[in-house]
Amino acid sequence: MSTFDPKGQTPPASTVAVLGLGYIGLPTAAILATAGLRVIGMDIDPRVVEAVNAGEVPFTEPELGVTVAGAVSLGLLSAQGTVPEADTYIVAVPTPFAEDKSADLSYIRAAAGQIAERLKGGELVILESTSPPGTTRLMADEILGIRPDLSLDGTGGRPVVRFAHCPERVLPGRIMAELVSNDRIVGGLTPEATLAAAELYATFCKAEIHLTDATTAEMAKLAENAYRDVNIAFANELSLISDRLGLDVWELIGLANKHPRVDILRPGPGVGGHCIAVDPWFIVAADPENSRLIRSARTVNDSKPGHVVRQVLDAVGEAVDSTVAVLGLAFKADVDDFRESPALGIAAELSRTLPNARLLVAEPYAESLPAELAASPNTSLVTATDAVSRADVVVLLVDHQQFRAIDPELLSGKTVLDTRGVWHTTDGHLLERSE
After folding, report:
1. What homologous superfamily does CATH list for 247-418?
2. Domain limits of the chain?
3. Given this model, what pLDDT does residue 8 score?
4. Beta partners for 424?
5. Pairing assessment for the beta strands 393-396 and 379-381 based on DSSP bridges
6. DSSP annotation string for 26-80
7. Helix 214-245 and helix 279-286, axial crossing angle in degrees, nearest 10
8. Cα 74 from Cα 66, distance rounded (Å)
9. Contact 276, 223 (CB under 8 A)
């Protein structure tokens, strides 16, 4: 591993095509355009293309709207539904997992096929999508299989195409700031590809850019999220044990964290989002024999939503016609991202297992109920205050700021299941009304 030094480097004067204008692709396109590059975004959803060309953002992310609007107004950012000709291609398409937890690489394969048709030689192709080890090589093989007149290294005098992997390392809600401030890992299939990719990211990244090979770069991103998943699983496992032993997990963790070398995370209703809930499985698939701890952590975290559902069912008991307030559907606080959200899964399961109960869902980042809940006749989307006021059982699943501001007095006399510890003091007791 080495670190890229941008001194003396000439910023690339090129056209960049970004394939996939989602939570990572669009911020990357916008920040590259702000750095002065000509950027063309491509997305298969015509509504996304229309929104970007109007200088608008189709999802919530602080500071992104202003950046997109400014880049579009300067003529540096546009969007279209087909892959353009470009000097650099950044692939930021989804990489979900299949039912067997293996990676679904169909979006990457589709992008590779479309890029191959546009290449002339000399281009740089960057995979940003979080991927199993070896995916950058697979993408290169797909493209060069379609275009045997091109090569990785100029063999036989054929024009060269460079391939690299540059995983994103940002937090939803802070993407625009962290694109600039977080260190970046860049790994190419060749040293020339690594340097070319580093030069591109140096146009906007103010932190260090670390150079490695493509497979190590792929594995580094997976290792980061597996590390977080294992630590969350420890907290979640403590919460399961505490419930069995009749202990208050919030008090337990607060006391354990008094030790100067202990910093246990806070448990929750599960792990969601497209990174932590997905990436560890890519490591398990790459080496099932040696990934026992990572697999176990995933199993613990995947089991937590079912545990929360059982807690709610126990709280309702014989009163099957109770009113249950479900606070939050997003996968984390203060975002409108519902991908792999345990909260959404819990709400959907409650709507099925409590058909006679009234399910009042509060989610400030949803204008209507998601498809998983929309068909349920006993489920409605209401304000947080309305949900809590009318409920017999209150289930907090996401620690949105709006829910943190709820007056604890509204919870008086209700059964409260606080899966995020929002309404608890460090000693485990419910907060009292502040005067």
Report:
1. NAD(P)-binding Rossmann-like Domain (3.40.50.720)
2. 2-215, 247-418
3. 59
4. 430
5. unpaired
6. HHHHHHHHHTT-EEEEE-S-HHHHHHHHTT--SS--TTHHHHHHHHHHTTSEEEE
7. 110
8. 12
9. no
Taking the C-alpha atoms of residue 331 and residue 273, their distance in angstroms, rounded to an integer, is 6
Determine the 3-state secondary structure of 256 from DSSP: helix
Indicate which residues carry an active-site annotation: 221, 275
Report in angstroms the alpha-carbon separations of 389 from 323, 325, 406, 407, 412.
Answer: 10, 9, 11, 11, 10
Q: What's the CATH code, domain 2-215?
A: 3.40.50.720
The position carrying tokens 């340097």 is 195
pLDDT in tens, 102-160: 889 999 999 999 999 999 999 999 999 999 999 999 999 999 999 999 999 988 899 99
Q: Do domains 2-215 and 247-418 have the same CATH topology?
A: yes
In this structure, how many other beta carbons lie within 10 angstroms of the beta carbon of residue 244?
Answer: 8
Residue 209, H or E segment: strand 209-213
How would DSSP label each residue in 267-311?
A: P-S---SSSTTTHHHHHHHH-TTT-HHHHHHHHHHHHHHHHHHHH
Q: Rounded to two decimals, what is the model's pTM?
A: 0.88
